[in-house]
Specification:
The protein is an alpha+beta fold and 98 residues long. Helices cover 39% and strands 28% of the residues. It has two helices and four strands. It has a four-stranded mixed beta sheet, covered by helices on one side. Helix 1 runs parallel beside helix 2. The longest helix has 19 residues. It is elongated and about 40 Å long. The two termini are 15 Å apart.
Length: 98
């Protein structure tokens, strides 16, 4: 089984491609999709989507695992909102592929 694992964020979305036994998978590749701070957040989300669509097409994963955004507090509500948007975008991108 091949899995695309995604750690979503607006500026630095991490990912890994894993294959084989779930208890001891082989790492086929990993990287970070880095988006410069000069790019608006909406454009950053679009760039992440483009990169993920390319990864899914290239590696043809059987499953996609997206790290869930965890709770927020009043002091990081803004960053949590963008993290949730990145999370939602990653889930939507993965769902678009059978």
């Amino acid at each position: 089984m091949r899995v695309l694992a995604i750690d979503p964020a607006v500026r630095n979305t991490g990912y890994a491609i894993l294959e084989g036994d779930p208890r001891k998978p082989t790492v086929l590749g990993y990287d970070v999709i880095s988006i410069p701070a000069t790019i608006p957040q909406s454009a950053a989300l679009s760039a992440i989507r483009t990169h993920l669509v390319h990864l899914i097409g290239q590696h043809q994963p059987d499953e996609v695992a997206v790290e869930a955004a965890v709770g927020s507090t009043w002091w990081n509500a803004r960053s949590s909102t963008w993290k949730n948007r990145a999370y939602a975008g990653c889930v939507a991108d993965a769902a678009a592929f059978p």
